[in-house]
Amino acid sequence: MSEAEARAFCDRLRVELENHGTRLASISTDVRAAALRAESKLAPMGKSIDEAVDFFVAHLEASKKSVRVSELVDRFLEAKNQDGVSKTHARDLRLRLGRLVQEFGPYSASELSTAGLDDWLRGLPFGPQTRNHFRSALHGLFEYARKRKFVTVNPVVDTDRARVPAGEKRLLLPEEMERIFKHAPARLIAYLAIAAFVGPRPSETMRIRAEHVDLKRGKILIEGRKTTASDREVGIPYNLRCWLERYPVGASGAAGRWRKHLDKTLVDAKVKLAYNGFRRSAGSYTYAMSGDAAATAAMLGHSDVRTFFKHYRRNVAEETALRWFGLMPPELGKIIELPSAG
Predict the structure, then answer these.
(1) What angle do CA 307, 180, 314 make, to 5 degrees?
(2) Which end of the chain is more exposed for a tag (fewer CB within 10 A), N or C?
(3) What helix, strand, coil percent values describe the chain, rounded to 5?
């Protein structure tokens, strides 16, 4: 750099410093005091005033671009359909997020906080595993919103996961199942009875149609998922036959109504259903009555007894199992006494 160039650079630098000083001199005392207070509050967090301003401006911009929760859910579900998710998964998302819309539909997505969503998740009338499934659906929704700048951060990230005890195997009690039947709409009862007494997977329960139920032969055809489970026939216990004679399975199955009506029924019945609660109860009570692990595992669609013993079986008193399979439609009596296997 020549002497002339150096002098020119110093002159430019001097002008910039003078202008900077002029701008600083024009800042009011109130603004300076506010800046000092802000710096003091941010210092313990290791953040600067510039970082705080950038964050807040981003939040305001996101608020302007944000959409209502109801619209966000519609957009998210449409995106999932375009992604080619299965009908069962799409239906599950629609039902879970539908509960969110019922509570927060008119709100802007950017208004929902971690604390508010955490409280909402804790208030759901379900066991810890199901609560975590709801959390996963919310996480996907708000991650979609974040990528489209409807929100600045995903508020679900810092919500608490429910603790699921290892090997949790809580069963429904006969009196809880009785309350569920009492509060269930008539069109749901056949599916509840099948779920409770022969234990198909929830997705299998939703696919059962009238043509799959053969009361003459005493069999129900359970259609498994093509990728993980094959079709199987299960026997119809006496009490289940009574329920199905009084409340026949519909021609179109339970798809589209199962989750919606089940959620309301559980709330009305004041019953918290553990993850796979119907299936686990059916397996444990069936085994308590029969003592045949292989037959029980086959009923549940397991290829061997190890899965049944590890995840689905819990020791229950034979008396409780008798009461479970003694649950009958109201016109036949709430619970009938069955003879002991001994």
Answers:
(1) 25
(2) C
(3) 65, 5, 30
Rounded to whole angstroms, the Cα distance separating 336 from 23 reads: 89
Q: At what angle do helices 186-198 and 258-269 cross, to 10 degrees?
A: 90
CB atoms within 10 A of CB 169: 18
Structure tokens, 280: 């686990």
Which residue has better confidence, 135 or 312? 135
Q: Where along the chain do its domains lie?
A: 69-147, 174-332
pLDDT at position 227 is 47
pLDDT at 49 over 70: no
- Top mean pLDDT of 124-133, 235-244, 333-342 is at 235-244
CA 15, 17, 19, 22 torsion: positive or negative?
negative
Enumerate residues 6+ apart whose C-beta is below 8 A from 120: 100, 103, 104
DSSP conformation class of 184: S
Positive or negative: CA dihedral 211, 213, 218, 224:
positive
Return the CATH number of the domain spanning residue range 69-147: 1.10.150
For 98-113, letters b (16+ CB in 10 Å) and e give bbbbeebeeebbbebe
The arithmetic mean of pLDDT across residues 227-238, rounded, is: 82
Please give the pLDDT value at position 106.
Answer: 93
Q: Can you tell me the distance from the alpha carbon of 209 to that of 203, in angstroms, rounded to the nearest whole number?
A: 13
Give the angle 195-201-166 at the CA atoms, nearest 5°.
105
Instruction: Kindly give, in sequence order, each residue whose CB lies less than 8 Å from that of residue 166, ignoring residues fewer than 6 positions away.
Output: none
Q: Look up tokens 């998710």; give the residue.
A: 85
Residue 336 has a pLDDT of: 44
- The Cα 49–Cα 34 span in angstroms is 11
- Which residues, in sequence order, are bridge partners of residue 222? 232
For residue range 270-310, what is the model confidence (pLDDT) as tens digits? 998 887 889 999 999 999 999 898 998 899 888 888 877 77
